[in-house]
Design the sequence.
């Protein structure tokens, strides 16, 4: 996919300088050097002559054209949300000039930089969560951006699913499943259903009412509305596993919005370093202590 | 003997020209009709499922070997690559069956596809349909009027030439 997505010149320079199999992020900015991260470690991309590889507006337009499949109408709501989902789970963060319609952000124009995130499936990376899977209850995985929350969640979903739980994945940005034509590219387990929806709230409703899940999994919960939805789901008897951006459980629960998670979330999984589980906080154990 | 041979040759030539002119009207009419059909397919594909252009285009041309299919296959080839220019679209729309104005119109339509939001895209397609429909109708009329006529005229002219020579 990366070969198709990037202009040939950029792809050739990038793969000559970096190991394609280790790439996790690529950043393209107009008239700035290309940077790439191998397993989260960023560095500038150099050509064979030792010059920094610069990207221009044409390169960015090429990526946009391929990422939107020349069909902006089909992804405009994503663009307004500042991202594009591609096949194979690649997610492109987009920054540019906002265009407003009736006072709301309608789309982006004059795109000036892209953050291309390449998902990886790492089997076994969530083995530290096996005890939770055996006694599963509502769980949030916490870390700052770029620490591998999605990778851990993907693997945890696979574990839960293979333990016999019906898991519905609400995949807003196609990062968890990396679906192509609706079929997941990543192994999410034998009892997993994937809902690719840009409106998570409708996804939650549809999942609870129609798919009879034991667990609903979602990436990057954000804001009060979504937490209210999750509280509703929890009340209905369906368990939740989700990721959230925060430094740790304490800072998450100090926030007046995310404090609303406390009544129904039992496990708080904190990551340290790329994709490493550092702490699992079990609310029930704290209570009993 | 030579006169008969020359006469027969003239008959074949005139008949061939008649067939060629008739085929031109038929192919032109069918090209324009298929392009209008492509707009229908786009409207359906875009308005309901918001299907990407490449999928709509390639399923529209699947199993077709017409002039429109060749043109749209060339366009699908552009869609598979990265960014492309209006000149690339003009190259794809280049057909001897279309006038300069028509080529520009088709190229402009192909270039505009997929570059705007849903509502704008659908209203643009309506605009192109409004431009293309009268041309298509006129091409159909011309085929009805002149298609069969030019074939018959070719045969008649061939016979006349053969008789004159003989």
Sequence:
């Amino acid at each position: 996919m990366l070969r198709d997505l990037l202009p040939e010149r950029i792809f050739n320079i990038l793969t000559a300088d970096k190991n394609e199999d280790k790439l996790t992020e690529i950043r393209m900015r107009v008239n700035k050097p290309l940077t790439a991260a191998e397993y989260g470690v960023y560095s500038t991309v150099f050509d064979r002559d030792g010059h920094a590889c610069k990207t221009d507006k044409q390169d960015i337009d090429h990526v946009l054209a391929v990422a939107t499949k020349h069909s902006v109408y089909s992804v405009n709501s994503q663009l307004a949300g500042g991202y594009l989902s591609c096949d194979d789970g690649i997610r492109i963060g987009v920054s540019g000039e906002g265009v407003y319609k009736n006072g709301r952000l309608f789309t982006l124009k004059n795109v000036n930089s892209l953050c291309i995130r390449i998902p990886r499936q790492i089997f076994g990376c969530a083995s530290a969560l096996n005890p939770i899977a055996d006694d599963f209850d509502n769980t949030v995985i916490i870390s700052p951006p770029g620490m591998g929350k999605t990778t851990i969640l993907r693997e945890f979903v696979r574990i839960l699913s293979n333990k016999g739980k019906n898991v519905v994945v609400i995949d807003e940005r196609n990062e968890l499943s990396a679906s192509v034509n609706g079929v997941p590219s990543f192994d999410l387990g034998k009892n997993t259903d994937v809902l690719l929806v840009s409106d998570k709230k409708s996804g939650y409703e549809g999942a609870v009412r129609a798919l009879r899940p034991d667990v609903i999994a979602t990436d990057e919960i954000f804001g009060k509305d979504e937490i209210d939805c999750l509280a509703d789901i929890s009340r209905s008897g369906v368990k939740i596993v989700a990721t959230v951006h925060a430094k740790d459980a304490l800072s998450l629960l100090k926030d007046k919005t995310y404090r609303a998670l406390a009544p129904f979330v039992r496990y708080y999984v904190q990551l340290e370093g790329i994709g490493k589980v550092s702490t699992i906080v079990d609310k029930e154990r704290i209570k009993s202590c | 003997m030579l006169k008969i041979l020359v006469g027969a040759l003239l008959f074949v030539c005139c008949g061939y020209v008649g067939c060629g002119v008739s085929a031109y009207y038929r192919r032109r009419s069918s090209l324009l009709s298929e392009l209008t059909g492509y707009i229908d397919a786009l409207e359906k594909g875009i308005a309901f499922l918001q299907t990407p252009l490449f999928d709509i285009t390639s399923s529209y041309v699947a199993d077709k070997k017409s002039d429109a299919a060749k043109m749209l296959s060339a366009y699908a080839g552009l869609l598979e690559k990265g960014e492309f220019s209006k000149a690339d679209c003009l190259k794809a729309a280049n057909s001897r069956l279309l006038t300069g104005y028509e080529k520009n119109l088709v190229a402009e339509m192909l270039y505009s596809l997929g570059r705007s939001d849903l509502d704008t895209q659908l209203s643009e397609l309506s605009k192109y349909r409004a431009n293309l429909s009268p041309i298509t109708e006129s091409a159909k009329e011309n085929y009805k009027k002149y298609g069969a006529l030019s074939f018959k005229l070719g045969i008649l002219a061939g016979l006349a030439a053969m008789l004159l020579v003989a």
